[in-house]
Amino acid sequence: MSMINREIDDFSVQAFCQDEFATVTKDDVLGHWSVFFFYPADFTFVCPTELEDLAALYDQFKAADCEIYSVSCDTHFAHKAWHDASENIKNLPYPMLADPTHKLADIFDVYIEDEGVAERGSFIVNPEGRIVCYEVNAGNIGRNAAELLRRVQASQFVAEHGDSVCPARWVPGSEVLHPGIDLVGKL
């Protein structure tokens, strides 16, 4: 079943961000765009490459009024330990959400019960708390932060311009389609 336009459930989880522990709730994600970026586990191989890729574009996500929330089923203490032990993770600017009870992984339907980890899922959530775009990859396939940013920007564009749609490879400033108008012009 599709998760598009599904409102995320209430939640409250611990997080680690920039040398501090904090609590993040659903209320914290309302009012701005969000990306929930699930990964299987701390201290792994593909995950740090993805988290670094997101960090490299974090300023562009923030300029688009979008917060990144990386999420694994590890504890916030494990996130801190990984941060302290890894040069790749040490400078992450966004919150690392802890989900040891897999509440968030269940909400987003990415929990692998037999393994106790989350699938590699990316979810774009609008300011009203609704999922507008998502993808789930096999655990051995890394994601591209630039493509995720493009999909955030396209989601924002169509939210603001309901009569326009973004074609393949759309980027901000490129042409869009107007289904009613463009179709009539081609008849």
UniProtKB/TrEMBL annotation:
GO cellular component: cytosol
Enzymatic reactions: a hydroperoxide + NADH + H(+) = an alcohol + NAD(+) + H2O
Catalytic residues of the enzyme: C47
GO molecular function: NADH-dependent peroxiredoxin activity; thioredoxin peroxidase activity
Record-linked Pfam families: 1-cysPrx_C, AhpC-TSA
Gene Ontology process terms (BP): cell redox homeostasis; cellular response to stress; hydrogen peroxide catabolic process; response to oxidative stress
Function: Thiol-specific peroxidase that catalyzes the reduction of hydrogen peroxide and organic hydroperoxides to water and alcohols, respectively. Plays a role in cell protection against oxidative stress by detoxifying peroxides.
Subunit structure: Homodimer; disulfide-linked, upon oxidation. 5 homodimers assemble to form a ring-like decamer.
Full protein name: Alkyl hydroperoxide reductase C
Organism: Gordonibacter pamelaeae
